[in-house]
Amino acid sequence: MDYDIIIGLEIHVELKTSSKIFCGCSNEFGGEPNTRCCPICLGMPGTLPVLNKKVLEYTIKAGLAMQCKIAKFSKFDRKNYFYPDMSKAYQVSQYDLPICYDGYVDIDVGDKTKRIGIERIHIEEDAGKLIHDSNGQESLIDYNRCGVPLIEIVTRPDLRSPEEAKILLETIKSILEYTEVSDCKMQEGSLRADVNLSLKRKGSKSLGVRTEMKNINSLRAVQRAAQAEAERQAGILGSGCEVYQETRRWDDNKGESFIMRGKEEAMDYRFFPEPDLPPVCVDEKFLKAIQASIPQLPRQRRERYVNDLGIPRYDADLITSNKHLADVFERASEVCGNPKLVSNWIMTDIMRRINEKGEEILNSHINGDNLGWILSSMERGEITHASAIQVIDVLIETGEEPGNIIERLGLKVQRDEALVVKAVKEVINKNPQALSDYLSGKEKAVGFLMGKSMAALKGRGDPIQVREILKKELQSYL
Amino acid sequence: MSICKKTIMETSELLRTKKIGAVELTKEYLKNIRKNADINAYVTVCENEAVNAAESAQKLLDSEDEVSPLCGIPMGIKDNICTKDIRTTCASKMLENFTPSYSATIYNKLQRSGAVLLGKLNMDEFAMGSSTEYTIFGSVHNPWNGEYVAGGSSGGSASAVAANLAAFALGSDTGGSIRQPASFCGVVGLKPTYGLVSRFGLIAFASSLDQIGPISKDITDCALIMNAIAGHDPKDSTSVKGHASDYLEDLDGKVDQLRIGLPMEFFDSALDGDVGAVIRNALKSLESRGATLSECSLPSIKNAVPAYYLISSSEASSNLARYDGIRFGYRNENAKNIADLYRLSRKEGFGSEVKRRILLGTYALSSGYQDELYKKALKVRSIISQEFNSAFEKYDVIAAPTCPTTAFKLGEKLNDPLKMYLNDIYTVAVNLAGLPAISVPCGKGKNGLPVGIQLIGKPFSEKLLLNVGKRIEKEIGRLEIEQKEGL
Ligand SMILES: [Zn+2]
């Protein structure tokens, strides 16, 4: 292409405070329609908002994690527009004095690090949801999400490719997960992005006309939408036409975008200071306490894993891409004292199960403590590799305590020499062909008999011990 | 003398000494309301609830030694203050059938004191007006002379107290809506400092200006009601902590050493000569008791009315946007699509004055006009505040007429919004600056209609204002309406 792609993102993130932004209603996702609302979030006459202090705390936390400056003085404004899912017909937001500003996020593009500016992060409230009846006759409104706290992260137009846009979103997602301000469930809409994109002729100084694509809710879709928009604009410019400043809607199923409104229809939101909420003044003490609560972020953790724990970079990348996984890794490493072993297990066995069953298994049954315990049992030779896999399977299925599982299924390694000798002898007796193969010098027969012996011991033999005894027994035939 | 003419203090004494029962008292008031239906003070009279509340109050009176002086006292509340399970209409078709599932904080407080709600009081629609003529329930008549307005927007509240249809009432004041009707009806009306009384449950007109306050028969009653309603409310982020006090304490009317400023802008050519004379007479009585009077100036006051109308209408345009016919309130049932649902519901649900202000406010906030209109008004607002601040370095209290005239005739200004707005010239600046101000009856004009003097103080100087008011009351006496024939 003869153009540079200029992209900026506006990312909307639902904060996972326990209650909504201005009332005591539950902030939990889901619920029967209109069961998580009250007169305040429904905007009933006479009600007033009271800011949930956690919202301020979480926003500042996100801001600090993205190296933002925190405004000592900030305020709320009303963004006025009519839409049935906005119960007050205005959204409480922040217009000219956002709480966080002038930050940055470093992203890895190939083997290079690139710094993307964060222009601002501000607080606002989410709206409800319109549900259109299947017969097209009625529209229903669910206000459960109305008043859910949101932050909007506005990046500078520093991204130069659709891939960078995706990487930035991914990086910000993991920062938000690490700081635990949002669960970033894109499929539930708790993280969604608007893509602002324009093209600039290579070498030219003047910027092109920008379009905005709204409400994209997957990492893949951000990249696809940006790619498609860059191509669309290049096509228009290539044919000698003009790109219009407009707002577009991305349809990820169709793989194309559609115009929502042009510049002429741009909304006049009539922003003005929200008179029901006093300005926000952040004091030093509050700020310090938040700063102290920020955990080590993914990039720093990854470097530590590689440099201090000797974990391969690829593995460290994957493990730190998910805070739960990284937490499980760190705790399990502490418990069993062998980070490389833990990382190997996570990269193979645990990842396979996450792919099969979903990430929830990390929260529900598998944690750093029990994984570490299982692996150290294996290291001590108390259970075999195969048993360790079996214990993890049962653990994921039932959540049963690993010690119990081992006990109940009799997975403890069988070291009683008399029993092992008895089992090995029986195996040799039952397999005369293998014995004669061995006697005729075919070493492969040992492997076969070894397998049979382990099976006879129901997988609970200590392979080293079994092999020794088997060899001794076989030698007695020589 | 009818029991209903008594002040809260007097009535409370009778209740405590068992000279009268709470239920009997409430029934007396309900009878009076029925007899004076022509005043049209009430929008809703809740007889059953009132009698039940009176019974509960009587139990409190019987069982406890330390009851609030408000226990068993019948009151009325302006119909823009939410009362759980009792219709709250804002005198608008939009909310004609709206019954809130929650109560305003001040109603909760008053209920806990044992006060008895007689009903909800008429007002200008959404508190926008100065005459209580913009109401779907019909105009309120001034109890002193039925051909005249009671003032507004708390016209129902002021007339109810003046005509003894409630021992006291609650109103709301955004630009004078407590003080002006109090002045027109010859009763005491206090607009507290912004933030002193919770706004939770007050249906918003202009959030940065609105404040609930008492309307009472005398100063002591006003102080007593303030004791019940003032104070921080965690449900209202704009309510302040640590400023409420005991308003009855030291209420002795001493004014010696008091420095009173008289802004020349409030004694200008707009001031009716007759009203001016009554005000000067009241001021003289303060002077004779040791206060010093000095003329002062608040030059930016001349911009207060336009600034007030721009700011209040801007906020109103946003506050009233929620009346869209979807969740509550009036809905046009024939709308074919969402745009029509909004358009028709709002067109039919709001009265003309409300629509005028929504249009003005929407315009003032629009991009391209906001700097010239809304933001300029905010600048005027802060200059007015500064001018008051510097005046309060020299004076303890600023005194002025509450209104340029006595009550005007019903219908007189109804079709001339500008004339109607100018009636607020002496009251709106106080709201812009967030200050406390009280209107105290100080005599009658030649037409026999009451005149109120307005006392303005520093933030949270309500005690001082009540004290000065007390002196005026002592010098001039309460204004009482001659009982009608047959009562
Ligand atoms: Zn709620």
Please give a quick description of this structure.
Chain A has 478 residues and is of the alpha+beta class.
Protein traits:
heterodimer; A: 478 residues; alpha+beta; Arc Repressor Mutant, subunit A; 3 domains; 9-stranded mixed beta sheet; 3-stranded antiparallel beta sheet; 16 helices; 16 strands; 20% strand; elongated; B: 487 residues; alpha/beta; Amidase signature (AS) enzymes; 11-stranded mixed beta sheet; two-stranded antiparallel sheet; 15 helices; 13 strands; 38% helix; globular; binds zinc ion
* Separation of the first and last Cα atoms of chain A: 77 Å
Structure ligands:
zinc ion
Number of helices of chain A: 16
Computed CA radius of gyration of chain A, to the nearest angstrom: 30 Å
CATH H-tier superfamily of the domain at 3-256 and 458-476 in chain B: Amidase signature (AS) domain
Number of strands of chain A: 16
In the sheet with the most strands of chain A, the strands line up as: 2-6-7-10-1-11-12-13-14
Query: pLDDT below 50 for ≥5 consecutive residues: which ranges of chain B?
Result: none
CATH architecture of the domain at 3-256 and 458-476 in chain B: Alpha-Beta Complex
Give the count of helical stretches of chain B.
15
Structural class of chain A: alpha+beta
Strand content of chain A: 15-25%
Query: How is the main sheet of chain B built?
Result: 11 strands, mixed
Class by helix and strand content of chain B?
alpha/beta
Please give the radius of gyration of chain B in angstroms. Answer: 21 Å
* CATH topology descriptor of the domain at 3-256 and 458-476 in chain B: Amidase signature (AS) enzymes
